[in-house]
Each structure stands twice: as structure tokens, then as C-alpha cells.
Amino acid sequence: MDHPRRQQVLQAIVEDYVHSREPVGSQALVERHHLGVSSATVRNDMGVLEEEGLIMAPHTSAGRIPTEKGYRTFVDQITSLKPLNSPQRRAIRTLLEGAEDIDDVMERSVRLLAQLTHQVAVVQYPVAAVVTIRHVELVRMDEHHVLVVLIPADGRVSQRTIALSAPVDEHVVLDTRARVLGAVTARAVLEAASLLGTSALQAPVEQRPLLMAVAEALQALAASSSEQRMVMAGTANLAHSTGDFARTIGPVLEALEEQVALLRLLSEMQQDDRGIAVRIGADDASDPLVETSVVATGYGPQESAKVGVLGPTRMDYPHTMAAVRAVARYLSRVLDA
Predict the structure, then answer these.
(1) Whole-angstrom Cα distance, residue 271 to residue 282?
(2) Tag placement on the chain: N or C end, fewer CB within 10 Å?
């Protein structure tokens, strides 16, 4: 759109409707936004915007509301994002920097983003190209059970209890631990698993079952590290937006629970020049997320994973985009530390 005043009118309609959830009339626009023209002129501009499919009349009311195309045009016109205020930035920094491990970081990130935006917050786990082992611990529980604790370089702790058919004493566990540490520390997980399998063939017979069990645990860790995973928070926020959905929110909740569609969507979304990806609605009417918007951005190494929010199309886009970008930057900083 290359008509400055009509851009202003569209922006004003979006802002007012997002705030009030009520159709916006020309007289209200003139009074609230000081457009410098008469309500008749604004009505003419609104008529043009309606012809272009940017706004619509939801019923016989004189007011208008934005369409998906109108929201899209509004979002594309945002040239700069207002930074979060000092208390909000301080809250992000304090909360994320106090996290204990990557799972804690992910949980804190989505809880915080849901609170900042009042939407559903989601974050993909970063998928490392090569996962290396920082430390392994073997703890004898009793003569037939040993706890294996694997700590990869990304800080995500994995543990499992191994049941052994033959009894094992503390001395065997300590000797096995030394052999395991020598084979796996600072090595890629699959390489470490292979080395342990070879080492088991050369180890004393009493250590072999435990070594093979640790190798299997490493293989399981490699498999889980390559999976796409996500965590979310704020689903209850949708309960406050049921009026924004012409249909029931059931399909949206089901899609969030299954996660597959949302993970695929996040992976496919392309960031614009502002470093933000915004999807408004969907072309396919059968898409369960057709009445939602998703705002996301990449974080971490090569920004391969995304953090973002999902909510109804009636969304405070400038604030949401700024909040998503701010959390992503702090998240990258914490994970790089």
C-alpha cells in the first residue's frame, strides 16, 4: 500500500480492534488517532481498504475489523520494533541466567514468554550436529542394579537404571567407570558407544555386561538428541480468546497436544529482514491452525531452532514480535555461555 493516510487508518483499525475486540468506526478513529481529516474522509478510506480486502464488516455494524490480509499488511509495515522496557529485560535476564540445565532453560523460556505475551509460548530444542560426552557416572544401587548418568556437552542430563542378571560389587563398578570415562569423555556419542562395544570384548568378564549396557544407553542418547523436541506453556491463555475463534478451539488444542503440525510449521517458517517470522492464518481451510497466528524467530547455533508464540490472529503483533526476539537473544546468550 502506497497511500500514507490509508496506512494510518489501517494501523489505527488494527490497534483499536486488538485492544477492544470491537468493530471500529470512522468517528472513533478521528477522535482517538488525530488523523487530521473528517470522519467522511476516513469513511472513504475505509471503503477503499474494504475493497482491497484489508478490512471487513463483521455484521450490520458501521464498524470494521481487520482481515488476515489486513493483519499481514500491518505486520509488513512495521519497520522497527520497540524494545522491551527495563523491568521486562531484567526479568528475562534474571530468570534465564538462573537455570540449572538445558531442560530448565527451555521450561523457563516458555513460561516467561507466555507471561510476557499472554499467548501460547513454544520453543524447539536445539539439535546439535554432533553430541559429545562431558561426563559419565556409574552408581551401584544394589548388587543387580546400576544407575548410569550421562551428561553430554549441551548439559542435558540423561539417566537410566541398568538391571544386571549377575551380581556386581562396588569394585567392579568403579573399575568399569574408569574404563568408560577413558572411552567416552569428549567423544561424540555414537563414537563413544562403538568404542565401548569394542572395549567390552577386551574387558574382564565381570565388566562386560555393564559396559554393553552403557553402550546401549549412549545409543539411546544419540537417538533422542537427533529428535525434534519442543516444550510449551500458556495453553490456558487460549481460554481467554475463545471469542476470537469462529469455530471451536478444539482443533487448535489437539494440534498443540500432538505437536507434529506445530513442529513442522516452525521448521518451515522463514525469517524476514527483521529476523522474525510471522504466519497469519493459513491457505488451507482444513488446517487446524487456520484461525491462529504464529510469531517465531531462530536462536542458538546457526539459529537452527525456533522460539515463538501462537495465538489468535487478533494479536498485539509489535509487542509479541519484540518479546519473542528479546527472549531468543537471551536464550542464545545463555546457551553460548
Answers:
(1) 17
(2) C
Domain boundary assignment for the chain = 4-76, 86-125+229-336, 133-226
Backbone dihedral angles phi then psi of residue 298, each to the nearest 5 degrees: -85, 160
Task: Give the pTM.
Answer: 0.74
Give the pLDDT of residue 157.
80
Q: How confident is the model at residue 13, as a pLDDT?
A: 95
**CATH architecture entry for 133-226:** 2-Layer Sandwich (3.30)
Q: How would CATH label the architecture of 4-76?
A: Orthogonal Bundle (1.10)
What is the model's pLDDT at position 337?
64
pLDDT for 261: 84
Pick one of 3.40.50.2000, 3.10.310.10, 3.30.450.40, 3.40.50.300 as the CATH number of 86-125+229-336. Answer: 3.30.450.40
**Model pLDDT, residue 307:** 95
**Could you list the mean pLDDT of each consecutive 10-residue stretch along the chain, which spans 337 residues?**
85 94 90 87 93 89 89 92 87 83 88 95 78 85 89 78 88 87 80 81 86 83 70 91 83 88 87 91 86 93 86 95 94 81
Closest CA relative to residue 315, chosen from 113, 68, 4, 50: 68
